[in-house]
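PT: before anyone asks, these are the final sequences, not the draft ones from last week. 686 residues across everything. Please model them as a single complex and drop the result in this thread when it's through.
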Amino acid sequence: MELQTLTYLVVGLTFALYIGIAVWARAGTTSEFYVAGGNVPPVVNGMATAADWMSAASFISMAGLISNMGYGGGLFLMGWTGGYVLMACLLAPYLRKFGKFTVASFVQERFYSKTASAVSVLCLLTMSTTYIIGQMTGVGVTFSRFLGVSNDMGIYIGMAIVFSYAVFGGMKGITYTQVAQYCVLILAYTVPAIFIAFQLTGNPIPQLGLGSDIIGTNVSLLTKLNQVVTDLGFGEYTTALPGSRLNMFVYTISLMVGTAGLPHVIIRFFTVPTVASARSSAGWALVFIAILYTTAPAVAAMARYNLHATMTPAVKTGSDIFAPEGSLAYADKPAWVGRWEKTGLLKFKDLNGDGRIQYYNDKSKNPAFLDKAAAAGWKGNELTVNADIIVLANPEIALLPNWVIALVAAGGVAAALSTAAGLLLAISAAFSHDLMKNIFLPDLSEKGELLSGKIAMVFAIIVAGYLGLNPPGFAAGTVALAFGIAASTIFPVLMMGIFNKKMNKEGAIAGMLAGLFITLFYVFAHKGLFFIKGTGYLNLIGGANSFFGITPEAFGTIGALTNFLVAYIVSKMTPECPEHIQHLVEDVRTPRGAAKSVEGAH
Amino acid sequence: MDKSGQAYWQAVLKLLAGVLAVWFLVSYGCGILFAPALNNIHLGGYPLGFWFAHQGSMYAFVAIIFVFAKLMGNLDKKFDVHEE
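LR: through. Structure below.
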C-alpha cells in the first residue's frame, strides 16, 4: 500500500478508537467533566498521567533538540523526569490529604484569601497558554507532514481538531482515552527506535544500542558520532554544552521545579484513592514516562548519525568529506527529503551551485575546518532542518517500512492531542470554576459554568494557534518557557503552603506576583511582549542572556528563588498566619484521616 | 501538634533530606557537575558522565520514588498515622 494511504488509515483507526472511548464514557456532571471520579487505580492513573504529560514537546520535539544539542540536551531528560521525584516527595501526598479539587482552591483555603486564589489562577492561565503555544507548534508539524500541506495550514486544521476533541470528551472520557493514547504513542516511539538500533548496532534495545559498537566494527556508536560531527565542524556530541554548564544546571532546575508545579499533572494526584497511593502513583507515572525518555537519547543520536550519513555519505565510509562526491547529489535525494520540503520545514538552497547538498556547521569555531571547507568550494550550509521534524522523519531517514512511518504519524497526533486536550481542560476549569464561579459570579449555574469553560477554551485555542504560527521557538523550547512560569509561581506557593506553616497570604501573593513578573520580564525581553514577534526589548536588559549567560528558558529557577525570597520577607513584615490555618497545615502533614474521596467544591 | 506528631514530622524531614540528596547527586552531581571527570570512565560505549545525564539519572529517579514510598509507609506505621 502506498505510504500516504497507509498513514491515513493508521491515523484514522487510532482516532476512531479515541473518539469511540470518549463517546462511550461521555461526561455528565461538571465534577465528572473535570476529574474522573475518585476511583482510578495507581497503575492506570500512572499511564494516563504519562499520556497527559508526554506531549508534542516530548514526543515530536525533544529528541530532535537533543539530536542538535548532544550532551546538553540531557537537561530535558533529567529536568522532565526529575520533577516527579519532587512531586512524589514534596507535594502529591500532602495535596491529596488536603482534599481540594484544584490548585486554586488549595491556595484559597490555605492562604485564607480569594485574592491569593485569583493570583494563582492568573499564573496558571499564563503558564497553560504558553504551554499550548508549544503544543500548537508540534501539532502544526505533525498535521502538515501527515496531510502533506504547509505548516500554517497544519496549524489551522490542528486547532479545529484539538478543540472539537477537548469539548467533546471531558476528563472522564480522557482518562481512558489517554490509556489508549499512551499505548499508541509508546509503540510509535519505540518500534522505530528498535528497528534503527538493530540496524546500526545489532542490538535491538535502544538504551543498550546507544552504548554499543556500530555493527561490523569495533568503534562505539558514540565515538563514531563524535568523530562525524566534529569532522563537519559541529561541537563534540557527548560533551557539547547548552551555552554553559551553569546554564545547563539552572535550566534543569527550572524544568524539574516546573514539572512539580504543573497544574494539569498535579490535578491527577487529587483523584487517587489514598495518600499512600499518591506517592506511588507518581512513581508509576514516571515508569511509563521513562520508557519513552530513556529511548529518546538513542533516537536522537541515531537520527543525527543517519542524517549526516545520508547527506554526507563520505562520513560513513571514512573517505574525504571535502571531495565532490563526498556530499549527496540533490538529484539522488531520498524521497523523504521531497516530502518534508513540501511542509517548508526542511529547505535546500544550493549556495555554490554544484547540485550537491553540503550540510555542515558554517559557524564552526575551528578555523582549520572552515579553511578546508572554503578550499573545497563550500559557500555555507545548504540544508536547514527544523529540529521538530527529526522524530517524525527519523524512520524515513532510516528507510524503514511504510507501516512504521504511518505508526509514528499516529503517535505524533496522539501525543499532541492528549496534552492539548488536558491543558484546555485545566484552563477551562481554572477560568470557569476558580475565577468566574468562585470569585466573580457565585450564582453561576452548572450549565453557565460549563459554557464559560468552553468559551475560555475557544479563546485559548485561538490565541495559541495565532502565536503558534510564529512560535517563540521549537515546540520543546516553548514548552520549557511554560515550565519556567510554573516553576516561578505555582511550585513555590504549594511548597510554602505545606512546609512553612507560618507563611501568610500577603507573603504568598507577593511571592507569586514577583516570580511571575520577573520571569515574564526576562522572557518577553527575548521573545517579544506576549510572544508577539518584534516587540522584544533586549537592549533594555543589556543583550541576550545577559543574566550570567542564562537563557530565557532556564530563567524559571531565578523566578522561583525570587518568589521564595519575596514571600519570606513580606511574611515577616505582615501579620502572622492565623492559628487555625497553622493547625490545618499540621493536620495535612499526617496521612491519618484523609477523606475517602476528594469532594468537589459543589 | 503533639509530641509524637512533632517526632513524626522530624523523621519525615530527615527522610526527605536523604532522598533529595540522592536525587541531587545522580542528576546535578554525576550528570552535570562531575560529568567531565566521569567521562574518563566508560560504561560499554558510554562515557559515564554522558550516561548519567542521558540514562542513569532517570533509572535512579524511578527507584528513588518507590523506595521513598516504601520508607514513608514504614514511618506512617511506626508513628501510627497511616490511613485505616
